[in-house]
Amino acid sequence: MTEHGKDNITPIDGKSKTQADKGPQIRFPPPFVYFGFIAIGLLADKFIALPSITYGPAFEWLGSAFIAAGTALIIISLGLFKIEGENPEPWTVSKTIIARGPYRHTRNPMYLGMAMIMLGIGIWRDSAGVLILLPVAVLVIDRWVILPEEAYLVRKFGKPYSDYQKRVRRWL
Length: 172
What we know:
The protein is mainly α. The chain has 5 helices and no strands. It has a domain at about 65-170: Four Helix Bundle (Hemerythrin (Met), subunit A) (Up-down Bundle). α1 (about 30-45) packs parallel to α3 (about 110-125).
């Protein structure tokens, strides 16, 4: 444990210039995936005339709660990155693995937070389009962002990261 109370996992070989030193090669900002699918879902509601899933005012509060909780999860996660001097952009090189706070329960709290925001918007706006596209957005993030990130982190940190993967689930 460090003075910040987190497990520090250091690189296997801090000197060699390997693929692990180049970052995970993510080609687009993950929030764009979620925002893109939200926009497509809302447009589908309007132009394809998807059925409304009217729940009433009580469910607007539920949607708002998901939006607030997802936003809080992202802010807390970004704060941990700032404390540790890490860049949250997934295409950058990682110096350490953050394994405290929400990272004790999910390896991807920011992506989970984005999914919660998308779910909240779908409920709040009574949007069948957004809710139908939520699993698609999660699948795109899982396959084209998280898998390359995790492959990079295994190359970079080796067994300590593999052990972390065994202890903590990818999503929940």
